[in-house]
Amino acid sequence: MEHAVVSAAEGVIHTLLGKLGAIIVQEAQLLGGVRRELQYLKDELESMTSFLQDISERDECSKKIWKKHVREMAYDVEDCVDEFKHQLGDSSSGGGSGPAAFFCKTIHILQTTRARHQIAKQIQELIRRTMNISARNSRYSGNHLIYGAARNSMGAHDSQANLLNIDTRITALFPERRQLVGIEPRQENLVHWLLEEHVQQLRVVSIFGFGGLGKTTLAMTTYQNLSARNGPFQCQAFVTVSQSFDVKSLMREILLQITQPVNQPAVAGKGPLEDLLKGMEAWNVGQLASILRQQLENKRYLIVLDDIWSITAWEGIRFSLPDSDNGSRIVVTTRIRAVAHTCCFHEYDQAYEIKPLTDCESRDLFFKRIFGSTICPEQLKEISAKILGKCGGTPLSIVSIAGLLSSKPVHSKDLWEKIYSSLGSELETSPSLERLRRILELSYNDLPYHLKTCFLYLSIYPEDHNIRRKTILRRWIAERFVTERRGLSVFEVAESYFDEFINRSIIQPVTTSFTGKVKTFRVHDMMLEIIVSKSIEENFITIAGEQHNVFPQEKIRRLTIHSRGVKYIATREILCHVRSLSIFANGELLHFGWMKLMRILDLEGYELLRNRDLNNLCGLFQLAYLNLRRTHITELPTEIGNLQKLKTLDIRDTSIKHLPPGITGLPHLANLLGGRRSYNHTGRWPISEFLGLHVPKRLGNLDSLTTLAQVEIRVSTSHYISELSKLSRLRKLGVLMFVDDDRTWASLISALEKLSGSLCTLLLWRPDGALNFDVINSLPIPPIFMRSVNLRGQLRQLPWWFLLLSNVTELTLRATELSAQEDLKVLGRLPSLLYLRLHHSAYIGTEFVVLAHEFPSLRLLVIHLSTFEAWKARFEEGALPKLEKLELSLFEEASIQEISGIEFLPSLKKVSIRACRSNMVNVEQIAASLMADADKNINRPIVTFEEKQWVPMRSRTDPPLDHMGNLLSFDDV
Prior knowledge:
Blueprint: H1 2-26, H2 28-31, H3 34-58, H4 64-88, H5 99-111, H6 113-153, H7 155-162, H8 183-195, E1 203-208, H9 215-225, E2 235-240, H10 247-258, H11 274-277, H12 285-296, E3 301-308, H13 311-318, E4 329-334, H14 337-343, E5 350-353, H15 359-371, H16 381-391, H17 395-406, H18 413-421, H19 423-429, H20 434-445, H21 449-456, E6 467-468, H22 469-478, H23 490-503, E7 508-512, E8 518-522, H24 525-537, E9 542-544, E10 558-561, H25 572-575, E11 580-583, E12 600-602, E13 625-627, E14 648-650, E15 671-673, E16 676-680, E17 687-691, E18 693-694, E19 707-713, H26 719-722, E20 732-737, H27 742-754, E21 761-770, H28 773-777, E22 788-794, E23 810-814, H29 821-828, E24 835-838, E25 847-850, E26 860-865, E27 870-875, E28 885-890, E29 895-900, E30 910-915, H30 920-936, E31 942-947
Parallel strand pairs: 1-4, 1-5, 2-3, 3-4, 9-10, 10-11, 11-12, 12-13, 13-14, 14-15, 15-19, 18-19, 19-20, 20-21, 21-22, 22-23, 23-24, 24-26, 25-27, 26-28, 27-29, 28-30, 30-31
Antiparallel strand pairs: 6-8, 7-8, 16-17
Domain NB-ARC: 187-371
GO molecular function: ADP binding
Domain Disease resistance R13L4/SHOC-2-like LRR: 577-942
């Protein structure tokens, strides 16, 4: 587990080194003698970082305590530096040079004398700690050498013991077929691709997915099935690549296997090439590759390359495997998505993402391993469901935990409950779970240190929590885990980190947009147990929850609360070093004023939060991320301008209407997220109205803003809107217009024109009226870089510049009342459009015709029908070539007369129809017709329909609600 120390400590130290360097340069005049001490600390920490990286490669357990001391000292140095910057304030406020500037700087020095003396004393103490840590390390490193000889004398014993742990995946190479579950359907796919006769070129089939899903087992069982003496392949080889691969050893192993008759073990000294291979150790890679190609040339072969971790490993072996156009095959298994797709270079190659076992398959495997049959005692059904939920359909987890349970002398509900609640500690200590732990840790240990830090951070979330991608990116940035790189913003770098986790199959996407972006994700429960264990052990995260003992042994740096009952840690001494606080359960609210170094405060969904609880909020001078979403807060503190480091303010779904004037004094605020739903319960059903934040004066001062959503305009004035044009970095904007005078609309269009070079996402709603078409149509410079557009309000026809939105991938229209086929043709010519939603009254024409070559990239089409006339849709052959899903919803008395042409949509997978009870008869008739057409489609799409209860609407422009009173769709930001 020492890798966790390295990741946590290095993440802190790298951030700190940059900060120390900046202070030494910028505050030279104020530092005086302290500058020399800070330079010493910086040099020491650089040396320690280098040493940490070195020992992380060697994984020396004897350095564990030393690494812990280095990490804690780095945290304390950073805390000291942060307080230093805060207490000294802005030493350059005088500006310029000359007597006036000298006088201002002198006054500033005198005013901060006491603070500088206090900081000097802290730095001296930190230097003493640094010297003691270094001395202790040197002292015990000497003793370590003495003990080394004694340990070497035990080498024979250790090597004997370690023989059992050479390859934690070894049992997957020799599967017991009778105990396997769910292998047949997966194997059928694999065998089909391997034996497909019409593909005579060398085909590569890559199997990829999360560790423990059975990739190696699937590859091996298929390999064994195809190893018959008269089988389809003339020679075969199965080799394990692993993280530390040796190309020469791999080639040698393949040569030894292919020179043996198929299905016969290799026997030393009896192979036809044995004499030739005796001098193989002296050969270089080129010589080995040459003879390997000679042996495989003109033969139909099957090579399995198991457990590839890098593209380099694939490229190192691929060039030695020839293509003789005779149906040869290569099977690759990997956890890395990019490796899988790189291996599948040609169109006839196949990348296969292995999926978890179904619930039924999981139960069968679990019970067979414990009881020898699929029958479970009644009293164990409930707890077994909980255990299987934690396994998440991964065979390795199921088999490992089943092995642990089967080793117990009795099978009682109480015992199984106890094991379930202590799986985290069992993973660390139980021999039955050692293989599972090692397999999961392979993925973690392969991460570079900066990704380890970000991945450990996911342990703040409770089990089964769906995590929003954008939320975690903003939190990483606020924690300073991410820094800008040349040509990339800090947010883009954070996105690259996240994409790497997806690439490595180390997190599980839950919802994904049709643009391919993961919207929410989860951490597999067993992987979460691994990183929680590492985080707690290395004091990276402190968890307050039913399954975690949180009584602090060290200073709390990051606190996450999963359940009630935290009174015993609610003291100033314990909380004064907290950097982030995340609350996922209602209960006692901790005192913010004690957490003066806090960077992240996440109170989303905390129902007991009230305005008075935020009284001490504005003293948190390091606060960079504040999330009050879905709380009962009605106003922000007036002193919010004191939060000079604040980057993200999330107040969505609160009752906050007005922002305090001080909000415009936040120089680093990048994300201002507001907007809420308001319900009117005067009638039988609640009526929903969407509201935004009132635009503050001097909004243009927030020149770091990249996201502003949602703000509302209720006053007929151009002054507030003109402030938008000053936000030169703005990428996402949401505006709700409640006024309709030409001057205000003209100001908005002028602002959009000035933002056209940066704006990528626009939400523009007129909730209770018409969008001003004449003004919108007059936009002289269209936002050509726009990727997402969401418009609500009457337009009647599309603006001319829609034709130029060549980069738009998502388009949502509501109540626009388009009716002309020409408007559909405009939308159909957008080359990048992936996702089109035509919500209530967006299109009111009675015919919806899509011609050949229209909508060339569209994958999802959503249409909500509210017209009282019978509606027709026709899709001509050649239209919508990439459409995967068609979703129709019928409101009020809307009816469908005909839908034709779905048999021509080659990528269609699903047609979904939703309607209220009054028009279900019509829907059932249409669904029957669609099913008949679906049978003619090469893809055989699924047709589904369901009854839905809709909430009555106040007017034609109101969005439809489901029976729970929720808006059917609203774009999250």
